[in-house]
Design a protein that fits this description.
The structure holds 2 protein chains of 2 kinds. Chain A is α/β, with parallel strands linked by helices. Helices cover 48% and strands 9% of the residues of chain A. Chain A is built from 16 helices and 8 strands. Chain A has helices at 12-15, 17-31, 47-53, 61-70, 74-83, 92-102, 129-141, 162-183, 189-212, 229-233, 238-256, 311-322, 331-344, 359-362, 365-376, 395-412, and strands at 38-40, 57-59, 120-123, 146-149, 267-272, 291-296, 349-355, 380-385. In chain A, the strands form 2 sheets. In chain A, strands 2-1-3-4 form a 4-stranded parallel beta sheet, with helices on both faces. A 4-stranded parallel beta sheet of chain A has the order 6-5-7-8, with helices on both faces. In chain A, α3 packs across α9, α8 crosses α12 and α9 (189-212) packs parallel to α11. By secondary structure, chain B is α/β, with parallel strands linked by helices. In chain B, 53% of the residues lie in helices and 13% in strands. Chain B is built from 16 helices and 8 strands. In chain B, strands 2-1-3-4 form a 4-stranded parallel beta sheet, with helices on both faces. In chain B, α7 (129-148) crosses α13 (275-284). Chain B is globular. In chain B, 51% of the residues are buried. The complex binds iron/sulfur cluster (2 copies). Residues 91, 93, 128, 130-131, 274, 326, 357-361 of chain A line the site of one iron/sulfur cluster.
Chain lengths: 413, 370
């Protein structure tokens, strides 16, 4: 089989996503023209709500990587980066965005109008090493941007205590001060409360949508997970709430009418680690044999409710809980999440993507594999790959191993 | 030729396991660490021996069943030794959050080898009053943890430990100064043995060894400063053979930016209103490591070292897959080049093909510098 490219989507609302993506990047590109400062920042932290509340435009370079992959631009971006002397062993997100900002972007190119240059850079001191280095590169590439050096405790969720939170709160306050000074805009506390409320509604909807996937047959699969775009880029906006409401309605409808992803769902699968953005069709691979990718690890990152009454604290807490997931602070927590999901989603087998581009999410997979087998009797298949770099993935090898794994799971049934 | 003076250091490095097992058999708790951003002084002051985990040049078959092939050989080698029972004397691992690989291994170690105490300590990236306070709270967490394995915290003892480690670092920095002047009578390979032994030996014993070593310098003929002066920059280097090759082929290592080197010693100590503050102060003002700083902030420090030592070129030696170093390298190389300092980067794989490719590449690099 040739590379399958794009994933097959069954939800009408998932097909609607391309419009949402186009609109978001349009908004990013029009922002400066409308006098709205643009800030580049890492995802999964409270900065996004602060930005929307202050009417600033957040841009997420990490999210740009899947877009480049979908448009087939990654090889060109990698080429630029490698020519600058960067090692092929570095995370593909770093190699992609570096290549983009020094290549296509300099020449005014890129899909969806490209990325607008930043007026502000929120440079994290937290998370994984590649994400920090990505932002250091951006600081250098855009010397005119004002830089906020953020600092967030790299603490395991199970170890968060009062004073970790206090430090995170002081950092959020510092961020607000920085933004006020840099942009001359002030933060309206009522507006922030509203944004946090919208953000929390998106989380609630997200949880609801994810819960419907527990139905047998599952109403949608990991191949549809692009819907998380709104959680990454639109948290705290009405757009996210409206869109997720439509997704929820459709998913609920399908679940109640027992409309599955495929006609005869035989085997329910779980995907661990970031998907191969250049070949999302892989997530549909098992369908011809009756296997559906029911759930995946990273969707849990958005499963967290916000306390609308304490906006600053809750955003600090959100940052503390979500952001360290992209570092190596705790394997325990990830193991717990995967086991819980596999139990709740009635999983028969797990695909563990050993992802050369991401050390933090890959380290500990063997412990997860063992726990799945021991505690839940769920077998898993480890596949070698990379979420950005196709050269580190072999379709032929994947096929052989995936087919054997499926046969084994079918026999067990 | 190995100098006789460094034999005691070589002895400890070569017999690490027996040496540490013996210490443990005297009832001492031993805590391991990967990265030098671990508050050794605090651990030591509480009566616990901090020991840097070392890699292994052997096949890492056991470790491969737990970690992917694309993790730096250093931490994979250490894990292999742990899985083989070579670190059974450890009570656990304490590690500042530096790189993803080391902290990932701490988790895997806890799951698969076990021990009493595992802690990846969050360290602030900024220097501010709030971050100092945050770090203080983490130090206090650590005190509690160490108390649970029999440690005893006293401010006075911490002060003594700070002094002891400060003295060691100062002694090492003095040797660096001699090296810059060309009056250090040790080859780079021998000097690395001295450094490596310091990660294993309890500090009071180590300081005594250093003093003995330095006292022999005056009676020994000064090493002739020949060869092309170069600075070595990179992650952890454990294989002294690499340095021997460089110097055999006509290079002379005059300075370094290594965590098995200068980064570990500079500055020797910190200051503050009490001992904990002084400890924090030093960690916040350390010679910058790529895992915790920006490349352009490292550059002036490197430039200073180059100037002080008279290095004509920079040899980057990285552990393969080492993200913090690999991510900084292109900018460093470019900036050094702009200053007229050529550089060469070599990645160290599991069992470096030391005698083949390495040698050839070093030779042609030295050729350029001559
Ligand atoms: S979490 Fe993984 S994928 Fe994301 S930037 Fe870090 S290493 Fe890369
Ligand atoms: S060599 Fe690099 S990857 Fe390995 S532990 Fe050190 S900093 Fe981390």
């Amino acid at each position: 089989m040739e590379k399958s490219g794009k994933s097959k989507k069954r939800l009408t609302t998932a097909k609607e996503l391309s419009r949402i993506i186009i609109e978001y990047y349009q908004e990013c590109n029009q922002a400066r023209g409308m006098g709205k400062p643009v800030g580049w920042m890492p995802p999964m932290n409270g900065g996004i709500e602060i930005f929307y509340a202050m009417d600033l435009q957040p841009v997420f370079p990490e999210n740009w990587s899947p877009i480049c992959a979908a448009f087939g631009l990654t090889p060109e971006n990698f080429r630029v980066t490698e020519e600058m002397g960067y090692s092929r062993d570095l995370c593909g997100y770093l190699r992609n965005i570096n290549g983009y900002v020094y290549g296509l972007m300099k020449n005014g190119g890129g899909p969806l109008g490209g990325l607008p240059e930043p007026d502000l850079i929120i440079s994290p001191g937290a998370g994984c090493i590649p994400v920090m280095k990505i932002f250091h590169i951006m600081e250098e590439r855009f010397p005119d941007a004002k830089v906020f050096r953020a600092d967030l405790p790299q603490v395991a969720v199970e170890d968060i205590r009062e004073d970790h939170l206090r430090y995170a709160v002081s950092e959020i306050n510092r961020l607000i001060e920085f933004l006020t000074e840099a942009t001359g805009r002030t933060l309206d506390r009522d507006r922030l409360a509203e944004v946090v409320m919208l953000s929390d509604r998106a989380c609630a909807l997200w949880d609801e949508i994810m819960a419907y996937r527990k139905s047998i047959p599952t109403p949608f699969s990991a191949a549809e997970i692009g819907i998380m775009f709104v959680m990454v880029t639109r948290q705290g906006t009405q757009t996210a709430v409206d869109y997720l409401t439509r997704v929820r309605d459709e998913v609920r409808e399908r679940a109640l009418s027992k409309i599955g992803v495929i006609e005869n769902e035989k085997v329910r699968l779980f995907w661990d680690n970031i998907p191969p953005w250049y070949n999302m069709g892989l997530l549909n691979y098992f369908e011809t044999m009756g296997g559906v990718m029911v759930a995946e690890t990273y969707s849990a990152a958005w499963s967290l409710r916000l306390d609308v009454k304490n906006p600053i604290e809750t955003l600090a807490m959100k940052s503390l809980m979500s952001y360290p997931m992209v570092s190596c602070v705790s394997i325990k927590k990830r193991k717990e999440m995967v086991l819980k999901a596999c139990r709740e989603y009635h999983i028969d087998g797990a695909i563990l993507h050993s992802n050369k581009s991401c050390h933090p999410i890959t380290l500990g997979q063997m412990d997860i594999k063992r726990a799945l087998e021991k505690d839940l009797g769920i077998p898993s298949l480890v596949i070698d790959g990379d979420h950005m770099d196709e050269r580190n993935f072999s379709m032929a090898q994947f096929q052989t191993r995936a087919d054997a794994f499926m046969e084994m799971l079918l026999q067990k049934k | 030729m190995r100098s006789k003076m460094v034999e005691p250091f070589v002895e400890i490095v070569r017999n690490e396991q027996a040496y540490l097992t013996e210490i443990a058999s005297r009832g001492k708790a031993i805590i391991g660490y990967f990265c030098t951003y671990t508050p050794l002084e605090l651990i030591h002051s509480m009566g616990i021996v901090p020991v840097r985990l070392t890699g292994s040049s052997r096949q890492t078959d056991k470790a491969y069943s737990l970690v992917p092939s694309f993790i730096c050989p250093y931490v994979r080698g250490a894990l292999e030794k742990g899985l083989g029972g070579e670190y059974n004397f450890l009570s656990g691992i304490i590690q500042g959050y530096t790189c993803d690989a080391a902290c990932g291994i701490v988790n895997i170690w806890e799951e698969n080898i076990g021990g009493k105490l595992f802690y990846s300590m969050p360290l602030p990236y900024n220097k501010s009053a709030a971050s100092g306070e945050f770090m203080r709270a983490r130090m206090m967490d650590l005190v509690k943890m160490l108390e649970s394995i029999g440690g005893d915290f006293q401010e006075g003892k911490l002060r003594s430990s700070l002094e002891l480690y400060g003295e060691i670092r100062q002694a090492m920095l003095d040797m660096y100064t001699m090296r810059y002047r060309g009056s250090l009578p040790l080859s780079a390979g021998d000097f690395l043995y001295v450094v490596l032994a310091g990660f294993i030996t309890p500090p009071a014993d180590y300081l005594a060894m250093l003093k003995t070593l330095v006292s022999t310098f005056t009676t020994t003929a000064t090493r002739k400063p020949d060869g092309v002066p170069i600075l070595v920059s990179g992650s952890i280097i454990e294989n002294t053979r690499l340095f021997e090759i460089v110097e055999d082929r006509g290079g002379r290592i005059v300075a370094d930016d290594l965590c098995t080197g200068y980064r570990n010693f500079s500055p020797p100590s910190g200051s503050g209103k009490d001992a904990v503050d002084a400890l924090i102060d030093r960690y916040m003002n350390r010679f910058p490591c790529p895992s915790r700083s920006r490349v352009l902030e490292r550059l002036p420090h490197l430039a200073d070292l180059i100037q002080a030592s008279g290095a004509k070129g920079v040899l980057f030696l990285f552990q393969k897959f080492c993200t913090p170093h690999l991510a900084d390298h292109p900018v460093l190389a470019r900036e050094l080049n702009a200053k007229g300092i050529p550089s060469l980067a070599i990645e160290i794989a599991e069992s470096p093909d030391v005698d083949g490719q390495f040698m050839t590449r070093i030779e042609s690099f030295l050729e350029i510098l001559k």
